[in-house]
């Protein structure tokens, strides 16, 4: 008698288990399909991104080369400016030395001119004094 009572319960349990198994299989198939769609969409996105990124990478490389060239040119210009500055400094020192030499020469000529002037004045005074005294 107990067996007769358990049989319907077991058959209902087996039926419920079969339905649950069917539902689980259905959801697994649905999940696999959705994962496949997502992976295809991701692959398409990555391919499109790759197509967009490659030209950007090439352009970035060209920009970096241009920046490197400009940087080298700036370095060369800076070096040239340093050379010009050094040359101008040397020229300034030489002009300053030339000015000092000219000032020294001017001072020496002024002293000599004063000496010659004093000598001529003294000679003329002596000559005039001799003439006043009746000398020749």
UniProtKB/TrEMBL annotation:
Keywords: Membrane, Transmembrane, Transmembrane helix
Superkingdom per UniProt: Bacteria
Residue ranges of the TM segments: 12-33
Protein name, per record: DUF948 domain-containing protein
Organism for this UniProt entry: uncultured Desulfobacterium sp
């Amino acid at each position: 008698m107990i067996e007769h009572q358990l049989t319907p319960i077991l058959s209902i349990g087996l039926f419920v288990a079969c339905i649950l198994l069917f539902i689980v299989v259905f959801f697994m198939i649905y999940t696999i399909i959705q994962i496949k769609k997502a992976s295809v969409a991701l692959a398409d996105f990555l391919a499109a991104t790759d197509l967009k990124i490659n030209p950007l990478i090439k352009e970035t490389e060209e920009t970096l080369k241009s920046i490197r060239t400009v940087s080298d040119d700036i370095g060369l210009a800076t070096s040239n400016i340093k050379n010009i500055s050094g040359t101008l400094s040397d020229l300034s020192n030489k002009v300053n030395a030339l000015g000092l030499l000219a000032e020294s020469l001017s001072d020496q000529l002024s002293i000599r001119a004063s000496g010659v002037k004093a000598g001529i004045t003294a000679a003329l005074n002596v000559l005039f004094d001799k003439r006043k005294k009746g000398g020749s």
